[in-house]
């Protein structure tokens, strides 16, 4: 039995993170980056995103973000590409 007052909690990059309810991976990435995203995961402004997403150790393709529902207990890693060495 689920508690209707309980917000799902994930581990995001090693820290507990409460979700505002049913959240897709796309919604989370948009929130984390502060950018509006198209349903295919590309930025609405036409720029580059440079983000990779893994849930419970499995990489989720950008095109699948909008259909991937995050759930209580998921471990999520968001990695940003950095240029240079």
TrEMBL record:
Gene3D superfamilies linked to this entry: 3.10.20.30
Source species, domain of life: Bacteria
Pfam families: ThiS
Positions of transmembrane segments: none
InterPro entries: Beta-grasp_dom_sf, Mopterin_synth/thiamin_S_b, Thi_S, ThiS/MoaD-like
NCBIfam families in UniProt: thiS (TIGR01683)
Protein name (Swiss-Prot/TrEMBL): Sulfur carrier protein
């Amino acid at each position: 039995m689920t508690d209707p007052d309980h917000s799902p909690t994930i581990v995001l990059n090693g820290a507990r993170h409460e979700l505002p309810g049913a959240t897709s991976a796309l919604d989370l990435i948009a929130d984390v980056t502060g950018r509006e995203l198209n349903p295919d995961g590309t930025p609405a402004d036409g720029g580059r995103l440079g983000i990779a997403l893994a849930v419970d150790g499995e990489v989720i393709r950008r095109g699948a973000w909008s259909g991937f529902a995050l759930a209580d207990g998921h471990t999520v890693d968001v990695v940003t590409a950095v240029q240079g060495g």
